[in-house]
């Protein structure tokens, strides 16, 4: 396909090339002065050292050298601008926005008696208190799938909530609240049907009472392996407990539910320069349709909103939300500083190969997956929301850490946008993959669920792809399996733990 230029805002002085282009090629009346890889930036006019480079009508950085129109601008040529100050953020009533009206307002899900949200899947979750028991639980899961699950056709799967936490940790350190609440809240994920099954060892620091209530600590819900005389006895007790839980889960049936019972997460990983103009805006439109219909949508990744935090503050519907935004982002700034890094550590080699020069450019493309809806609440990693609508969940940007954090906060489905490609998935909730480029879908036909690259080629609009994604979300929430679920592509649950390990 012939290359063309995509300039996002009229004041931008750079554009990206839709296809790899060579020196001397004329694209949209601009003669290229060097070879430029697909998705990378080209200067639209002559610029001097120190000039601001603009994309999304935002200063991406300042040039470290003179550049002529038609030259390639990459990550080595830019100095980062100062990040927005948190001290300048304050609450002002957000400007009214008109959200699109969805044509579908229901889905087929599993209602829960004890929760706000419904499940999109019917899963037995077995939670461990400490990594020491994960080997036993892994063996248990294998036996359940082979011996018990066939008896219970209404149960989709069984998963082990294994993690690296639980012992050898500073359990009372202030930041220990993050992994503890994340594991605790995961137990109550809507996809698990309110069934509690916890497996502990007996000598760990993460005691059962930190994960479930006193009333829930019963022989029907909790097993401590040190109470049983050997592996065979452990497995017999665990299989009996599992069977009783599966019987109850098997009684669950899908019913028609309003969108107000649906909570999903938006995440992006392996982003490229197309992400902010194709996959993420399409996800943003789908998010607006969901929120307009009454659903709850979470978006995340602190370092990928940090340079647009002022834009998020403008969308918060309350002073409490702005204050929480400042507190969570401020905490993360300090967390990075303790590690002697800042937000510039975020872009990956793949991000840069895909045309993203720095974290500012990445952030501007990342934020658009949240759409235009007002932000009703800000929560910390692993916290439960108290409101319905669009929510910023302040998690790390790492895919394998953000996912578990969103699961703990109650999502029953995740939408994952990618430009470079990743086989990422979750056993606990279905994951829909959306790619930013046609070539990504062509390469990974059986891994990508929806291709947003048609926006870059001009074949479809953001609205059209967003509506397709919205319908796919509801179809998957109602039982349709995306590729990652079909192939059982599941990542380890890497809970965020900033607390000390002793």
Automatic annotation (TrEMBL):
Keywords: Lyase. Pfam families: GD_AH_C (PF20629), GD_AH_second (PF04295), SAF (PF08666). Its EC number is 4.2.1.42. One of its GO terms (molecular function) is galactarate dehydratase activity. It is an enzyme of class 4 (lyase). One of its GO terms (biological process) is D-galacturonate catabolic process. InterPro entries: GarD-like, GD_AH_C, GD_AH_second, SAF, SAF_UxaA/GarD, UxaA_altronate/galactarate_dh. Residues 12-79 form the SAF domain. PANTHER family: ALTRONATE/GALACTARATE DEHYDRATASE, GALACTARATE DEHYDRATASE (L-THREO-FORMING). This is Galactarate dehydratase. It comes from Sphaerochaeta globosa (strain ATCC BAA-1886 / DSM 22777 / Buddy).
């Amino acid at each position: 396909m012939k290359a063309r230029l995509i300039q996002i805002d009229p004041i931008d002085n750079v554009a990206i090339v839709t296809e790899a282009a060579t020196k001397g090629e004329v694209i949209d009346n601009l003669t290229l002065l060097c070879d430029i890889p697909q998705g990378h930036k080209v200067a639209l006019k002559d610029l001097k050292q120190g000039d601001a480079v603009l994309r999304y009508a935002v200063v991406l950085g300042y040039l470290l050298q003179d550049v002529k129109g038609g030259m390639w601008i990459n990550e080595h040529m830019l100095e980062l601008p100062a990040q927005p100050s948190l001290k300048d953020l304050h609450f002002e009533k957000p400007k009214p926005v008109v959200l699109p009206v969805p044509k579908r307002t229901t889905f087929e899900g599993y209602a829960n008696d004890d929760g706000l949200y419904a499940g999109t899947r019917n899963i037995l979750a077995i939670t461990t208190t400490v990594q020491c028991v994960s080997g036993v639980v892994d063996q248990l899961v294998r036996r359940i799938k082979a011996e018990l699950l066939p008896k219970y056709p209404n149960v989709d799967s069984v998963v082990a909530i294994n993690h690296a936490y639980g012992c050898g940790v500073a359990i009372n350190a202030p930041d220990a609240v993050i992994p503890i609440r994340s594991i605790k809240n995961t137990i109550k994920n809507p996809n698990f049907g309110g069934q509690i099954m916890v497996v502990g060892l007996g000598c760990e620091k993460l005691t059962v009472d930190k994960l479930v209530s006193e009333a829930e600590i019963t022989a029907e819900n909790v097993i401590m392996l040190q109470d049983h005389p050997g592996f065979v006895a452990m497995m017999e007790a665990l299989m009996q407990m599992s069977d009783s839980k599966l019987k109850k889960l098997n009684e669950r049936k899908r019913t028609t539910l309003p969108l107000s019972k649906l909570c999903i997460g938006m995440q992006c990983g392996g982003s490229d320069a197309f992400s902010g103009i194709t996959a993420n805006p399409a996800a943003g439109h789908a998010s607006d349709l969901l929120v307009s219909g009454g659903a709850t949508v979470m978006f995340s990744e602190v370092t990928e909103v940090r340079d647009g935090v002022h834009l998020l503050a403008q969308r918060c519907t309350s002073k409490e939300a702005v204050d929480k935004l400042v507190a969570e982002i401020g905490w993360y700034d300090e967390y990075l500083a303790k590690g002697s890094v800042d937000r510039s550590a975020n872009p990956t080699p793949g991000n840069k190969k895909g045309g993203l020069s720095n974290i500012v450019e990445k952030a501007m493309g990342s934020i658009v997956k949240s759409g235009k809806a007002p932000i009703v609440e800000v929560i910390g990693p692993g916290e439960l929301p108290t409101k319905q609508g669009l929510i910023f969940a302040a998690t790390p940007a790492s895919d394998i850490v953000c996912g578990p954090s969103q699961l703990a906060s109650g999502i029953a489905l995740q939408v994952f946008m990618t430009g470079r490609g990743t086989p990422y998935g979750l056993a606990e909730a279905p994951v829909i993959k959306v790619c930013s480029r046609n070539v990504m879908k062509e390469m990974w036909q059986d891994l990508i669920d929806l291709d947003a690259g048609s926006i870059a080629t001009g074949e479809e609009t953001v609205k059209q792809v967003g509506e397709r994604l919205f319908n796919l979300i509801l179809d998957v929430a109602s039982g349709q399996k995306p590729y990652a679920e079909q192939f059982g592509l599941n990542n380890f649950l890497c809970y965020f733990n900033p607390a000390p390990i002793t």
